[in-house]
Specification:
The structure is a homodimer.
Chain A (H helix, E strand, L loop, with lengths): L13 H16 L4 H8 L3 H13 L3 E4 L13 E4 L4 E8 L3 E7 L5 E8 L2 H22 L7 E9 L2 E3 L4 E5 L4 E4 L1 H8 L10 E5 H12 L8 E4 L7 E5 L2 E2 L30 H5 L1 H8 L14 H13 L3 H25 L3 E4 L3 H19 L9 E4 L6 H15 L12 H5 L5
Parallel strand pairs in A: 3-6, 6-10, 11-14, 14-15
Antiparallel strand pairs in A: 1-2, 3-4, 4-5, 7-8, 8-9, 11-12, 12-13
Family (chains A, B): Belongs to the ROK (NagC/XylR) family.
Protein name (chains A, B): N-acetylglucosamine repressor
InterPro entries (chains A, B): ATPase_NBD, ROK, Tscrpt_reg_IclR_N, WH-like_DNA-bd_sf, WH_DNA-bd_sf
Chain lengths: ~425, ~425
Amino acid sequence: MRDMRVGPTGFHDVREANLGTVLRAVRTLAPCSRAAVAAATGLNKTTVSSLVADLIARGLLCETGESAERRVGRPGVMLALDGLTIAAIGIEVNVDYLSVVAVDLLERDLLTRHIAFDARSAGADACAHRIADAVRAVVADPALSHRSVIGLSVAVPGLVDSPGGIVTRAPNLAWRGTPLRSLLEELLHDAAPSPIPVLVDNDANLGAVAEYRGGHLARTGDLVYITGEVGIGAGLLMNGELLRGSAGFAGEIGHVRMVEDGPACGCGRRGCLEALAGIESILRAALPDRFPAGALTRADLADLVETAVDRAAAEEPTAVEALHTAGTWLGRGAAMLVNLVNPAAVVLGGYFVPLAPWLLPSCRSGVRELAFAPDAGGCFVETSSLGLSAAARGGAVAMVDALESGRLPLPPRQVDGVAAADEGAS
Amino acid sequence: MRDMRVGPTGFHDVREANLGTVLRAVRTLAPCSRAAVAAATGLNKTTVSSLVADLIARGLLCETGESAERRVGRPGVMLALDGLTIAAIGIEVNVDYLSVVAVDLLERDLLTRHIAFDARSAGADACAHRIADAVRAVVADPALSHRSVIGLSVAVPGLVDSPGGIVTRAPNLAWRGTPLRSLLEELLHDAAPSPIPVLVDNDANLGAVAEYRGGHLARTGDLVYITGEVGIGAGLLMNGELLRGSAGFAGEIGHVRMVEDGPACGCGRRGCLEALAGIESILRAALPDRFPAGALTRADLADLVETAVDRAAAEEPTAVEALHTAGTWLGRGAAMLVNLVNPAAVVLGGYFVPLAPWLLPSCRSGVRELAFAPDAGGCFVETSSLGLSAAARGGAVAMVDALESGRLPLPPRQVDGVAAADEGAS
């Protein structure tokens, strides 16, 4: 369809965009010469040299001695991504945990943390404080020593106004209109030498980014990632781009009504997919003895999932049946996605991963039953290899990605002998 | 998300792409000078002059005397799209009609035709012949005299492998694996001085293109167009781009299961939206006396729709109730789209347009009832202003659009005094 921009680049921020283009070229080609970057980008060599100098000063590129091409004589100076200077942090807040991931410019993990945390009982303010504490701990961690933190992403299970940094509605956290970005910016104003940019996004969206960038389905451009927590959400990647919709609220598969007069959902309606196949509803059905009066200690979810796995592995009929039923509902939900957006893959994440041996067979049957296209339009259903850290990891990666789109938050760094000598912890 | 191309343009077809870029610039800016095109595109003036000369030779641009800027002295030579030289043809084949539209480069209608035709009874081969006859009639029509036909689009209600030109599955036409493009290319090989490129696509996709380019919701980038025929399909435009999915089978909302053990659908399943709210099912419920033994003459659908409108307007309870119920189902289907892809607008097309006064209220209630986001994520439900010619029109426009993507099928034309003098019929 027609793009209203009439040229290959817009009128603004040409240099920033070109910096991003060069960074992207080096990621694709490294190790590579400046001449190779010029050839690949169409930018002239003088421009490339100037941009490269800027990117080296910002700690994003470095020179290496190696030459990719075996040439006679002196090897050319080659460029590579600088894996030693920056870090990006991603945090997921969910009903029963915080997940924390920091990555370097090559998207390699610098650290990962999983923190059991009853976010719902805590409330939004206390939760923001807990996130800020976690960020301070990461910034102070030896794994990040001498690194600049280029940004923090926070993944939230709910409707997120990402440009505004506001959580519009997260029923399972009981948040509504929570200005999470500004809360965190205030709490973190002195956490690092310069302010840390904060991005707030939906957990399923960032899970999809993580899958696309580093999961075992990496580079599958038409991919749906489904979160498996108390809530169920979908992150839709189409052609390698997140499908956000007009207000950023796409992917709410957890609140599609699957059946009239079904069980009550946290959103106030009945029969939503989340009420039929969310992890809390699965555990209630699979472990009825653990919920005698309907009470649930949310921070225990991980333990309860483990119990459900043990019982299903022991072929305990109630657990097996509950998982089979939930899998069928998940398959019917996935079939809607197959019919409406025709993904190449649907990836089940979160707590669905350990439960997959008992969920997947009926889930796949549900897709086959209800998909209109032959062979479900080529879609297969798989589990994530990224577990409960997917959304946090996707958030960290999204901050790295922002650099390549020309959003470069870093001023030229002060040359720092220690940082340059550091080998990079992991 | 990262694009694997590292530069602003790829390595191939740079000139073709630049021709498209210039064409697009002139569409946006016309009337405009070559200098303005150079400024807007970032291409240098010499290159622009050469590309413009080529586009003039191909009959796509022309020079005009007018100057947009009031300047002292001789007015500059201004460029505009050449509305006199080319034509693009779109045809929709549906269960009970062929719709034909031809447009010029400015996407103005040159002719429209509506032909009642029982496509299902005819079968695929006879249908291809009927389409070919229609194309020959258009090519010979005075409205297209002296024009080159740059291409033909055929819109089909079903799963279409558009790159292959094959209708994979169209249950309401009883087609399966129909190689429609090659059938038509063979039938049309001598219909014009040079072969006419043929594009086959899904009717809902092309309806969405037509809405985006020329409907009353034009330029709404996140838009879903829902066809209202025997079948129901959705064309999903996200960010102004068609969302096709990994195999091109996205948008099959007609075959999403709305209710277990619902009425039988043409696809062989039960409870599909199409079986609850497709035009045939609406007419059966609204006009029970007209279907005494379940028999249906498909070519009568337009008449029957008119009868249903008359009865509903006269507040005949059976008709009103049937439309209310179908509207509710449509709203529930639209709510799935709202939850999953969050469009800014859902547009009901085809026969839903005349029935809208009785469908829309319950449809909108259905959306409000089941949408998770506040205010349905800002989505409103409207009817199309393009009627039964939407998909045909969208197909013709898509051929024009292809020019601006650098797919220029025309060789430089022979200068033709008659064509240049022709004022363009409409």
